[in-house]
Automatic annotation (TrEMBL):
It comes from the Bacteria. This is Cytochrome P450. Its cofactor is heme. The lineage of its organism: Bacteria, Pseudomonadati, Myxococcota, Polyangia, Polyangiales. GO terms for molecular function: heme binding; iron ion binding; monooxygenase activity; oxidoreductase activity, acting on paired donors, with incorporation or reduction of molecular oxygen. Transmembrane segments: none annotated. Heme binds at residue 393. InterPro entries: Cyt_P450, Cyt_P450_CS, Cyt_P450_E_grp-I, Cyt_P450_sf, Cytochrome_P450_Monoox. SUPFAM superfamilies: Cytochrome P450. Keywords: Heme, Iron, Metal-binding, Monooxygenase, Oxidoreductase. It comes from Polyangium jinanense. Signal peptide: none annotated. Belongs to the cytochrome P450 family.
Length: 452
């Protein structure tokens, strides 16, 4: 058995690789993987960290040993002030219980009703657009996805809270990113400006989700949505959901449910604008399948190329670019190396998806990788935009359906063209974010129905 550390980038005394990571997280992880192989060792201050870059090791950690490799306690300390003990943080039986409670809201049979919401909100979001005008595409997509998650999961109209929610989430992401970079949770009791901003953002999100609760209580009806499931469980005499659990679930679903899909759509518009051949093939499919009418859930099996575009976008720019680190509670062996107790094990879909061993020409945008039949060559554990194993993202199908139908609805009616001269470098924060305020020009296009 190997006892030496795996190879990895050199760091500084005491700090380890913290400064390199702070400078550019994405570049650091890519370089570590490409230079040092399937397991790269680095240090976050005094903490040993390991980046896994092979599907065999990833399946071992996320599937075979998922129950004995829980989420890292340090990360949980950093994000718990915001997300409490929801599904992002909980481990073991508590996590399984929370998933079982929420799972019915994400059952495939519910996607039909969600699909109508996704299309309606895309149409409403475009209602104010004028051909030839310029828009910040991230703000436009966030309007749609915030409404989608609120209407689908909470049966709540979010028109009046979009700006507040977006501002609160931006603040939270910025605050969390700094603590992740330093690998140091900053105690909430410290009287700092950063903690004041934390408390303000937490209060803002709390007020948003608890308004959903208050509105539900006024009607008291089981609407079959996630909020109803949680509220009815909250009212159970024994074994139900406590007030804190209710809040944590709602914050988690609200936060994770809108930003990630909005970012995926922004990247899709950027990529389509840069690849007119792909854009043209997308229009051909939309005109052939839809003939000018809005898409429905029944159209999804025929929107093959649209789905391929979304999958390839998620390969290049997975919103969950870095999965929550795992922490072994005892020494383990991985790839012939001993991984000590208390280490942090990292897995980056962003890095893995750009490995030429698994995806030829990995930097190229090629939706045909995911053409039905061709994707059978993608080994399990190499394409993981939503993770893999028992902690796979519960809303993966929800998010994919939302992205496909929103993309189809908008692209059917408009060409979304990226304005030149903008920085497009991705930002590896809690989620993989495009630069804020990416500007596009929308040009109305003639659909088959309009031209007939």
């Amino acid at each position: 058995m190997k006892t030496a550390y795996p190879p990895g980038p050199k760091g500084m005394p005491l700090l380890g690789n913290v400064l390199q990571i702070r400078k550019n997280k994405l570049a650091f992880m890519l370089h570590a993987a490409r230079t040092h192989g399937d397991i790269a060792h680095f240090r976050l201050g005094p903490i040993d960290a390991y980046l896994l870059n092979h599907p065999d090791h990833i399946r071992d950690v996320l599937i075979e040993r998922a129950d004995v490799l829980p989420k890292d306690r340090l990360q949980n300390k950093i994000i718990s002030p915001f997300f409490g003990n929801g599904m992002l943080i909980s481990n073991g039986e508590e996590h399984h219980r929370q998933r079982r409670m929420a799972q019915p809201a994400f059952h495939p049979r519910r996607l039909d009703s969600y699909a109508r919401i996704f299309v309606e909100q895309a149409l409403q979001g475009m209602a104010g657009w004028r051909s030839g005008d310029e828009y910040a595409i991230d703000a436009e997509m966030l309007k749609m996805t915030i409404q989608n998650v609120c209407l689908a999961l909470f049966n709540a109209d979010a028109t009046d809270i979009v700006a507040r929610a977006a501002a609160a989430m931006t603040s939270i992401i910025e605050l969390l990113s700094t603590e992740f970079d330093l690998a140091i949770p900053i105690p909430m009791w410290l009287p700092t400006q950063r903690n004041r901003r934390k408390r303000e953002a937490i209060r803002e999100l709390d007020s948003i989700v608890m308004k959903f609760v208050a509105d539900w209580r006024r009607s008291g009806q089981d609407r079959g949505d996630l909020l109803s499931m949680l509220m009815l469980a909250h009212g159970e005499a024994r074994g139900g959901v406590t007030h804190d659990e209710l809040r944590d679930h709602l914050i988690t679903m609200f936060s994770a449910g809108h930003e990630t899909t909005a970012f995926t759509l922004v990247w899709a518009w950027i990529l389509l604008s840069q690849h007119p051949d792909v854009e043209a093939e997308l229009w051909t499919e939309l005109d052939r399948v839809l003939g000018g009418r809005p898409p429905t859930a029944e159209d999804l099996p025929q929107l093959v190329y649209t789905t391929m575009i979304v999958k390839e976008t998620l390969r290049l720019y997975p919103a969950g670019w870095l999965l929550s680190p795992r922490e072994p509670h005892e020494d383990i062996t991985l790839g012939g190396y001993t991984i000590p107790k208390g280490s942090m094990i990292f897995i980056s879909p962003y890095v893995l998806h750009r490995d030429g061993r698994f995806f030829p020409e990995p930097e190229r945008f090629r939706p045909e990788r995911f053409r039905p039949g061709a994707d059978k060559h993608i080994a399990r554990g190499t394409y993981i935009p939503f993770g893999i194993g028992p902690r796979v993202c519960i809303g993966g199908a929800f998010a994919t359906t939302e992205a496909v139908l929103t993309l189809a609805t908008v692209a059917q009616r408009y060409r979304v063209s990226l304005l030149p001269g903008q920085s497009l470098a991705p930002r590896g924060n809690l989620a993989l974010r495009p630069p804020p305020g990416v500007k596009v020009r929308v040009i109305a296009r003639k659909t088959v129905a309009a031209a007939a």
